[in-house]
Amino acid sequence: MFKRSLLRGVTAGAIAGLAYGVYVALVATPLIEYAETFEAGTGGAAVPDVVTALASIAGGVFYGILLGTVTFGVAFYL
Q1: What is the DSSP code string of 6-40?
Q2: Long-range contacts of the stretch 50-54 (C-beta < 8 A, 24+)
């Protein structure tokens, strides 16, 4: 029962984290980059955009798995 609850929490967290990571990569990061170039003028990025997008998506997935396991898995088990 506990293992099944944790597995469901991990699955839900991974799906939610993937959605969050894609949102950050496609919406939030370009807006932040625009604000930075508007504020500071022209300047090149230190890291390529692809690396930033992949890091945003991976971070969202891992964060979702962590919260999904703790919040859903353990809470529903209890």
Answers
A1: HHHHHHHHHHHHHHHHHHIIIIIHHHHHHHHHHHH
A2: 52/25, 53/25, 53/26, 53/29, 54/25
Q: How many CB atoms lie within 10 A of CB 59?
A: 15
| pTM exceeds 0.70 for this model | no
pLDDT at 34: 78
Task: Please report, in angstroms and rounded to a whole number, the separation of the first and last CA atoms in the chain.
Answer: 11
Alpha-carbon dihedral of residues 9, 13, 14, 18, nearest 10 degrees? Answer: 160
